[in-house]
Automatic annotation (TrEMBL):
This is Threonine aldolase. Keywords: Pyridoxal phosphate. SUPFAM superfamilies: PLP-dependent transferases. One of its GO terms (molecular function) is lyase activity. It comes from Gilliamella apicola. Homotetramer.
Length: 343
């Protein structure tokens, strides 16, 4: 059975595995304060062209989001997110469990804009309501769509004007930066967000994310909050060495590009068969509308996310490719799909 269920279904890229072997005989002090962490931090700073960035290695996306958001906000403050945003739908109320409301906004394409945020600010007008203070976005979005540089810049400028912080969840940042339609660079992320993270778990790492604070007025005592939330790993270096390898020789972007290229092959296949998409295909996640019977046959053969009916006669299935997806998997799926369509 081939698997397009997610982008973290294989353990670790060989270059990263080699890093584990190389450091295996080293004694390290740990807790994010050793030479391996320093090396990786310096590689990331170079890439961001941001020598003052404050960088922390985290185990996964949810712990990064909840530790960062809970650190930035005061007890009565809230975070604004797209209704489809990961913190709203897939993190078990982790943000709310830290005491902060997630105020959601309906979007067509998973992206937030100043026009969508402004009514939230107008509505939350006094101390009888929570105070929206942080805008959460992800790139790529939960629907696989991308922000352009102009959109990100406009959002950041809007946040600045309204005294909001902008935080970008980069679980799939490699796929965003490697996408054909992308014009955002690493230095742009340092310039146009207050904080963001570079996702590793979905980009060949065994696990791990690199959190970056660009705004150094919001990271005071962050390690205390990290420790209290259980987010400081004694062996942080196991995340750091992977990031060092990911940042070398453009590996990070090339793994994102491979994920996107595999998805594009699937996209062409679906288009040639006359199928439509529930969200614009721009990266490694495709949301495909299948006639009900065909969808049922496909999910009996493949591990896939089933997003339910898009209309009474269509079911939307998510196809997710990864750094490890092989062309032969796409070719075999194409044969299978063609056979099902001709039955
Ligand atoms: C955009 C985004 N943020 C955060 C996460 C959460 O990551 P984890 O499952 O590692 O906590 C995911 C995982 O699917 C994600 O897609």
């Amino acid at each position: 059975m081939y698997d397009f269920l997610n982008d973290y279904n294989q353990t670790v890229h060989p270059n990263l595995l080699k890093e584990f072997v190389d450091i295996n005989n080293k004694k390290l002090s740990g807790y994010g304060l050793d030479e391996c962490c320093d090396d990786a931090i310096n590689s990331i700073k170079k890439l961001l062209k941001s020598p003052n960035a404050d960088i922390h290695f985290m185990a996964g996306g949810t712990i990064t989001n909840l530790t960062t958001i809970s650190h930035i906000l005061k007890p009565y403050q809230a975070v604004i997110a797209a209704e489809t945003g990961h913190i709203n739908v897939h993190e078990t109320g982790a943000i709310e469990a830290t005491g902060h409301k997630v105020v959601t906004v309906k979007t067509e394409d998973g992206k937030l804009t100043p026009e969508l945020i402004k009514p939230v600010l107008d509505y939350h007008c006094d101390e009888h309501m929570v105070q929206p203070k942080l805008v959460y976005i992800s790139n790529t979005t939960e629907l696989g769509t991308l922000y352009t540089k102009q959109e990100l810049k406009k959002l950041y400028q809007f946040c600045q004007k309204h005294h909001l912080y902008l935080y970008l969840d980069g679980a799939r940042l490699a796929m965003a930066l490697a996408a054909k339609d992308n014009d955002i660079t690493f230095p742009d992320l340092a310039k146009y967000t207050d904080a963001f993270y570079i996702g590793g778990t979905k980009v060949g790492a065994f696990a791990g994310e690199a959190l970056i604070f660009n705004n150094l007025s919001i990271n005071h005592d962050f390690r205390f909050n990290m420790k209290q939330k259980g987010a400081i790993l004694a062996k942080s270096w196991i995340i750091a060495v992977q990031f060092k390898a990911l940042m070398e020789n453009n590996l990070y972007i090339s793994l994102g590009k491979h994920s996107n290229d595999m998805a594009e092959k699937l996209k062409n296949l679906f288009e040639n068969e006359g199928l439509t998409f529930a969200a614009k295909p721009q990266s490694n996640q495709l949301f495909v509308n299948f006639p009900n019977q065909l969808a049922k046959k496909i999910i009996s053969l493949y591990a896939l996310d089933n997003l339910g009916q898009t209309d009474p006669s269509h079911i939307c299935l998510r196809f997710c490719t990864s750094w490890a997806t092989q062309e032969v998997e796409i070719e075999n799926f194409a044969k299978q799909l063609k056979a099902l369509l001709r039955k």
